[in-house]
Amino acid sequence: MRIADRMRDLGTETAFAVADRASAQAAFGAAVYPFHLGDLNFRTPRNIAEAAYLAIKEGKTGYCPNAGIAPLRAALAADVNARRGTSYTADNVSIQPGGKPVIGKFIQTLMNPGDEVLFPSPGYPIYESQIRYFGGKALPYGFVAKEGTFRIDLEGLERSISPRTRLIIVNDFHNPTGAVCSPEEQGELAKIVRRHDLVALLDEAYFEIHYAGVPRSIVSQPGMAERSVLLYTFGKKFAMTGWRLGAAIGPAEVIALITRLNVNNESCSAHFVQYAGLEALRGGQGEYEKMLKELRERRDAALSILNSIPGVSCFSPVASFYLYPDVTELMDKKGFGGDYAAFAEDVLVRAGVSFCTRIHFGEPLPGENRHYLRLAFSGIGLEGIRAGLNRLREYAAGCQEARD
Ligand code: PMP
Questions:
Q1: Phi then psi for 338, rounded to 5 degrees?
Q2: Region 260-288: what's the mean pLDDT?
């Protein structure tokens, strides 16, 4: 078959290949510690699952409005307003089958072919894939390691803006670094967006997987609600990744167009799943709080072992369920230099530890000379974390031959 030219520009999530390699290794009978999974090994809270069973029993199984059921749109607007200081109504909400579809729909609605779009690197790989697929020019912006965290390289970002730059994608509560913008950084970023008349996609998938007090959104900066679309997902907060429920939230005229894309694509998000979403927002939050407590324990346990490994250093992520350790010295010591694929394979085979690396989150930027891994602590319990990272420590110390 002759494949359409545009498919050349469609990227993927190469992290899935890491999962395949880890399963192949496990099939061998080897112990594999899965730090590559971006999924949660928590069950969806029972009250949420029961709301879905009830909705099915009550016959909520046909099509529903393209933008989502009215009570869910209203409840989500109210929830977002309470946490972000906005004043959205149901008209500002278009329910989606997950957070991910918001990325492509935002780009289709607001980008013309040839327009430039700023996106984070390292960052979630779907941004660059969708910008390129729809004919845009993808402009990466980087981060600098500073004061115990990663800060957006705002100077570099502003320098790369041209009159053709129309959109910016911001993933505060960042995958893969776990970094959160400081209030000053949020203010500076909003100034840049206003100064250059950009429109922003604010991917806040991890807004509520946050370990240091109350999260703040860039959307509450002056002028930002008018020029932003928020990516909301039920997946992380309520351990509902496989249910596929999220939303695009923003100015009503843009949201109406995004809903027209729903009409052209999936018609509507699964009807009964939306009742589960309603229960997630309105019901007790005890399970979410328990999950967050456990995630914090996992983060702290992982961090203390990682930082005890010579040649490895890791900042404490303020949000998300990812660690982004700098392993430059370890890779050098083991003779891998910048060869991530060979290093990851060696660690998998010798220590059973599976993870993603910098290159699963985009091409390293010019001048970027440190090497990083991404370790997820969402899909592995405390015991596995301790056992796996202790094996990584033995590997680093060069003891693996003795065990083999
Ligand atoms: N944005 C980011 C930064 C993510 O990491 C993810 C999922 N890993 C998503 C969006 C998409 O989430 P969902 O499962 O809701 O589509």
A1: -105, 15
A2: 98
Extents of the domains making up the chain: 5-43+287-397, 46-282
- Kindly state the DSSP code that residue 372 receives in the 8-state scheme: B
Q: Residue 404 Cα, ligand 1 centroid: separation in angstroms?
A: 38
Pocket-forming residues, ligand 1, beta carbon under 6 Å: 38, 98-100, 124, 171, 175, 203, 205, 233, 235, 241, 246
Name the class of domain 5-43+287-397: alpha beta
Q: What is the pLDDT of residue 38?
A: 87
Mean of the per-residue pLDDT values of the chain: 96
Q: Residue 400 above 70 pLDDT? A: no
Pocket test for ligand 1, best of 107, 119, 124, 244 (most atoms within 8 A of CB): 124
Q: Can you name the CATH fold of 46-282? A: Aspartate Aminotransferase; domain 2 (3.40.640)
Percentage with pLDDT > 70 across the chain:
99
User: Model-level pTM?
Assistant: 0.97
Question: Rounded to an integer, what distance in angstroms lies between the CA atom of residue 142 and that of residue 115?
Answer: 20
Angle subtended at Cα 13 by Cα 45 and Cα 374, rounded to the nearest 5 degrees: 75
Ligand 1: centre distance to CA 398 (Å):
37
CA distance 170 to 203: 6
Using pLDDT thresholds of 50, 70 and 90, give the confidence band for residue 402.
very low
Average pLDDT, integer, range 334-357: 96
Cα–ligand 1 centroid distance for 175 (angstroms): 9
Q: Which atom of ligand 1 is nearest to the CA of 38?
A: 8
Q: Which atom of ligand 1 is nearest to the CA of 101?
A: 16
CA 98 to chain centre: 12
Q: Which of 12, 16, 100 to mutate to test the pocket of ligand 1 (most atoms within 8 A of CB)?
A: 100
